[in-house]
Design brief:
Elements lengths: L20 H14 L8 E2 L2 H8 L3 H13 L3 E4 L3 E4 L6 H7 L5 H9 L30 H13 L1 H6 L8 H15 L8 E4 L2 H12 L5 E6 L3 H9 L3 E8 L2 E2 L1 H7 L5 E4 L13 H14 L2 E5 L24 E6 L11 E4 L5 H11 L6 H11 L2 H27 L4 E3 L7 E6 L5 H10 L5 E2 L12 E5 L5 H15 L1
Parallel strand pairs: 5-6, 5-8, 8-9, 9-10
Antiparallel strand pairs: 1-3, 2-3, 4-11, 6-7, 10-11, 12-13, 13-15, 14-15
Helix pairs in contact: 1-3, 2-3, 6-14, 8-14, 9-10, 9-13, 15-17, 16-17
The structure holds pyridoxal-5'-phosphate.
The site of pyridoxal-5'-phosphate (PLP) has 12 residues, from α9.
């Protein structure tokens, strides 16, 4: 404790074993000054005296005093000793003077209209069924991926020189263009494919690129909150368009807001209800977009997993007006920490998008892209998808079959046959949230459907993920879910 200039007293904390004497004394004195225990204007004892009092060598004390002088904490006065510098702003006084939030923070926080929170799910930590975050990670060929990664890493010297045009690794973009053409009916060249760190980044960039503050945009209701969040952040007004058995209702959209700037859609597998948009409805959307000059963002997030018949080709492939921007992700197809997705843009928009992307991230290249490229080119991607499609079909069947056995009269599992999760409608009297909480209490993870609505009332249902759980785990969990909903 410091009493006065002449009666200096300072208790020092014990020195940790792994710290040198000099570093320890330096940090003790510096912290004492910053915390105000050694006040500005206090005179320190002479180095010899300081060393004697604290059982240190004089050399250590001199070295520390000199360092603190160099850094401006102490000042020597000729013939008078060493003083704590009056200009040091202690943390305590800094706190006192900053009770007011700076204007720039206040403005930014006020201007940011808080979107619906991304989190807030009831997440059970133990990977409990029917969590829907992950695909079947235990089935991923990690050894093979590791070998491809090691091979690329060995050629790192070459990799360091690799040029990047802001769109991502060219051979990967070519592989994606080829794959999208043959399996999703997307018509594009590699030049139109741009790598992003997942669909969410694409939505953020597209929101800022395509929407000005006050612009209106159609969203499926219920729909993907990540898109409404990104568009709201861009200042747009969300028009909640109801979804019927064919997906987004174009006629409702036209009544609500015929001149919206664009629409966000999940036509292959509506998020979250799971229906596929039929061709007729797709044509209605495209006609509206062509007539009004609107954009259509087609989010194809998990369309590869379709269990009855072939996947329906993308809207992008039937669009003749350049209205459609097609986005997709590998996080669902392979593994979630592989933050890689892509955007397929009309050619005229490519350069502008690249310049937007470069504002946030100058280079679009990553080693992961090269590994993924080898994974696709080597035929492993196609093989993995086929294997997972069969596996997920079996797991979904087990869920449906078990649902009929255990959940009769409580929960109807949808007939939709695609994706990594399925929607199920409540047949008891619970709300979505009540059902979600009751399930969680029995260590069953679900997602309440009302978490995805914009204006629509609670659809009274749950989302159940099945991809990451084998048949045994599914059949063991269902009686507990039934108990929760009874
Ligand atoms: C419909 C939909 N689109 C996009 C995403 C985000 O994908 P990514 O992980 O590539 O950002 C998700 C994630 O759950 C999703 O459900």
């Amino acid at each position: 404790m410091v009493k006065a200039a002449g009666t200096f007293e300072l208790s020092l904390n014990q020195r940790p074993r792994n710290q040198t004497l000099t570093n320890w004394l330096y940090s003790e004195l510096r912290v004492a000054i910053l915390h105000g225990r050694l006040k500005a204007g206090v005179r320190l004892p002479a180095s010899r005296e300081f060393a004697r009092r604290h059982g240190l060598s004089r050399g250590t004390v001199v070295r520390v005093f000199e360092r603190l002088q160099d850094e401006g904490y102490l000042s020597p006065r000729v013939g008078q000793g060493t003083w704590v510098n009056a200009q040091v702003v202690t943390e305590a006084s800094a706190r006192k003077s900053s009770v007011k939030v700076p204007e720039y923070i206040r403005r930014s926080v006020a201007a940011y209209r808080k979107p619906r929170p991304f989190i807030g799910w009831i997440k059970l930590n133990n990977g409990a069924p029917f969590g829907m975050r992950d695909p079947a990670l235990s089935e991923f060929p990690t050894q093979l991926w590791g070998r491809l990664a090691a091979k690329r890493a060995r050629a790192f010297r070459w990799w360091l020189r690799e040029a990047d045009d802001g769109r991502g690794y060219q051979p990967l973009r070519a592989a994606i263009a080829q794959y999208l053409g043959s399996s999703r009916g997307v018509r594009c060249t590699a030049d139109q494919v741009l790598m992003v760190s997942g669909v969410q980044q694409a939505l953020d960039l597209l929101g800022r690129l395509l929407l000005a503050p006050g612009d209106r945009v159609w969203m499926e209701d219920p729909g993907y909150f990540g898109a409404s969040m990104a568009f709201q952040r861009a200042g747009a007004q969300i028009i909640a368009v109801p979804v019927d058995e064919h997906g987004l209702s174009v006629s409702a959209g036209m009544q609500l807001c015929p001149k919206a700037r664009g629409v966000f859609l999940t036509p292959a597998h509506q998020y979250p209800l799971g229906m596929t948009m039929p061709l007729g409805r797709r044509m209605e959307v495209l006609e509206w977009a062509a007539r009004t000059g609107a954009f259509v963002i087609e989010d194809d997030y998990d369309s590869e997993y379709r269990f009855c018949g072939p996947s329906i080709p993308a809207m992008q492939g039937i669009d003749r007006n350049g209205s459609v921007i097609f986005i997709g992700t590998f996080t669902k197809l392979l593994f979630p920490s592989l933050r890689l997705g892509y955007v397929v843009l009309p050619s005229a928009l490519v350069d502008t998008f690249v310049s937007f992307r470069q504002c946030a991230d100058l280079r679009a290249l990553s080693l992961d892209q090269a590994i993924l490229c080898d994974f696709i080119d080597g035929g492993h991607f196609g093989r993995h998808l086929r294997r997972m499609r069969d596996l997920y079909a079996t797991r979904l069947e087990a869920l449906k079959e078990g649902g009929r056995r255990y959940l009769n009269g409580l929960l109807d599992i949808s007939e939709a046959a695609a994706g990594l999760y399925t929607a199920a409608l409540l047949r008891n009297r619970m709300s979505s949230r009540q059902a979600e909480a009751a399930a969680a209490a029995r260590n069953i993870e679900t997602r309440a459907l009302d978490r995805f609505t914009l204006q629509r009332s609670d659809p009274r249902g749950l989302l159940l993920g099945f991809a990451a759980f084998d048949e045994k785990a599914i059949l063991q969990a269902l009686p507990r879910l039934a108990e929760a909903l009874s």
